[in-house]
## 1
Amino acid sequence: MPPFDSRLGCSTISFRHQPLAEALATIAGLGFSEIDLGALPGVCDHVPYVLDMSAVENVARSVIASGLQVRSINGDIGDLNVPLADGPRARRRGHLDMLVALAVATDARALVLPCGAIDHTPVESLETDVARVADELASAAEVAASRGVHLWTESLHLHRLCWNLERAQLLTDRLPAGVGIVMDFSHVVASGGDPVEFVARFGPRIEHVHIRDAAPGNINLSVGRGTVDFGGGLKALADAGFAGHFSLELETRDISHDERPSAAAGAGHLISELI
């Protein structure tokens, strides 16, 4: 019998200090069968930011060799609320194309993109910026769908434009049905929100869930060391009919690298029981 619930995976961001092949081996060795693949510049270098077909093939080769399934690729193609001239826009589209190609090569279900720049202050106005993010996500969803890949967004992210429940609502109200929502417990709680309210607002749109503990203003805590009520939040998801998967995204800063495997295993057992 697998050690963890079959719907619970582990993000490679949890072991971002290791090279990709080593991180995959660590995750598989713990007993997980599924991953989210981190492709976030400055956060996780498992996928090169300068992404060409050679890099896509190299990353895909490592992932396939690990035997792990890929639920999503957590990527970034730039600040979606910042207007671009033709040259930068073409480069953004090229990066999107490569991330979608990587999703296809790794048989990932979805590509995840952010909800705006790492800045709470709009470039123009909140309404204009949120509308621009929604339009960019809608366009990216069409590109992804053309190759059989879903497009999701983490609609509430503590450090980005849409950083709280109200802004997540503004964004979600503008998103087409083809763009799914990723719920991250840590960002909801760190922003002062309630996971149960997040589910009440966005339940039918939630496609995937990130698991990490938090306290107000701090998203970098190990599971069990913050104030997140995982039991209440997971029950709300179940009551809302959520049938998607979960991923431990343990970008924690309260443990050493040597402690990460045991912390991931402990979190996996706890969350599996609650699921």
## 2
Amino acid sequence: MSAAYATFGLAPAMRAGGVLADGGYQVHRDFVDFIVDGRPLLFQLSDLDAVSPLASDIPPAIFTAQVRSLLLETDAPLPDGRYVVYGCPECEDLACGAVTAVIQSDGEDFIWRDFAWQTDEHADLELNGYHGIGPFRFHGTEYRQALASLLDGAAPLVPRRRVLLIGARVALLAKLAAALRTIGIGADITRDAQGVLAEELRGYGAVVFGHAITEGERAAVRRSFEDAGVEVAYVDGLAPILPLLVAQTEHALDRSPPEQRRLTRLVAADSEAVVEVTSPCRVRLTAYRLDRLHRAHTHELFDGILEPARHRIALDAKAVKGESFVVARTSGSVLVEAMGHGNTGTRTARAAR
């Protein structure tokens, strides 16, 4: 079968969870994405909110079965030799829609072809086919080694999804922990990390510090993790605003390679945001503001599809006045910036263009 050779690889990816402006929640999902010719395959399928079947939160037996299925060691789950490549991040129901493809062997090679959007047992290639994507021919050795590495533990692709919350405002931390758990991120609360066993510290991917924690206390926490040989991301909470803190935590947990992200830059200054994306995707900008009475306000600033480029987006000056913060979100990543005001912020925004 004629098909151009392509490279095949795997990389950690994330479906960003969050507390949305309307009060709803979006579930956090970690998964392993397919890297074709050095670029996530998901990015070639328009702006799709989906995850691969190689998700880190499914039972090990199911994960193993998914890998062996992609290796063609079991029968195809759908008619006509079709396999689910990306599915709904909220459930596994085909009725929600999934990207499927025919996966077959050709000698030592593996071929992925006839990509389609599918909502029932049979795919309509004429109506719902992804024309212009594939077919891809992968060298068998490279393909097998990449997938087999998920089974033998050679590929450290599953991130740590627990977060340690350290602060003095127990009520706020409890609300933050509850929100994180709701979207699928484990969270524990403490005042310090002294005396915590090394094996427990190894389960955390990030530490979130509250405002009341001193620099000395932060340094002590860092030493505890360093002594345990654990590398984690540290988050300084910007403000006591729950969706903002969740967004900061999501950003800290993102372990996808920077060169394989859709949303790569956010600068917010003087009623303007500079956003950079690497592939067509939906971008949402939300502002969180504290007024003089320390009451939180939320404003939706922008929601639209952006093409690969660096974009300047004008913001509502009233929504970002005073102590305010901007969150940029795509389906796969989140960036957070404090709003800059004055000449310094202007220079920052111009430098990003």
## 3
Amino acid sequence: MFERPDAGERAVIVQLDLGSGDVAEQLEEVRLLAESAGAVVCGEIHGRRHSPDAATYAGKGKVQEVAAEVAAHEADLVIFNHALSPGQERNLERTLQCRVIDRTSLILDIFAQRAQSSEGKLQVELAQLDHLATRLVRGWTHLERQKGGIGLRGPGETQLETDRRLLGKRVKLLKERLVRLERQRGVQRKARGRSEILNVSLVGYTNAGKSTLFNALTHAGAFTANQLFATLDTTSRKLWLGEAGNIVISDTVGFIRDLPHALVAAFHATLEATAQADLLLHVVDSASSAREDQIAEVDKVLAEIGAGEVPQLMVLNKLDLTGLPPAVERDEYDRITRVRVSAKCGDGLPLLREALTEMALEKLQIVRDRPLAGNVSLNPENILDSGSSL
């Protein structure tokens, strides 16, 4: 008989193959997401469909299979690693008799748990409210006022309409606060742009080792864990590079496949700092079999936030898991394209520091030769290719 865990909600995860063909990798990712949110995965359901079912996404037979798994493990929650419509969620909950959430809700929940700064909390709340707005009918149908009755007669507005109006006011307030924070960040970025200091942002797929690399370079003590979205709030530190002086390096939130658009929009103020960087250190988990897809997903999000043209230096991390030696790779024009390191063991970090020193000296020369009133960025044609890949 299945033993109930002492802590965490028991979850059954569902992953359907709609033609992508990488079900095993996607199952592993949603399992890590669920565990990062605090769930205990007690069952997994997968299968193939040509297209989603309009009513339940998975289809009648597959839903019955999920129901049997829920009953067998006394699960509290079913997680679909797909985007569900409000109607599909309601239909599934009615059939399965337990809570059902989709990939977007799961990621939003993790972000809500990890946000530490006041700005991060505002951004997460805004994303959650945007997502909730289409699902209010599920939670408030029992408070319908138009039917009348003692204590329910009102000004002719349903509770649902009232709640939507209040939610709209809250969303407006949050957006106004974030705009003010974005203006403050803009002033700070302009000041950095006029300086001779190289501004570097760490980017990459979640759990690629960005925070471990950030700590190894700056000794900042940023939180690290073998879980998705361990870092949410942006942290910046100075890094001394000898003859090149100081540079500013920032650790940012990791990207992921199908990152909810509501999150990208809400975190625009934070992610915009990435677009204003002089250089992106694109950290890649070189031991992952899905690294090519992960690189493509990161580049897609970077393009969405306006950072697609910012020069990149590819950092192939986790060499301790691949057995490859540390190295610096250059193209035919002697431009640095990739550096192979192990942030955990420290192998290759001196090579990365030398590469950053070269970039910092390049910016220093540009600023001194051609001082500008606005932001000064490295020229991708002079420094490196922004679209490097493995």
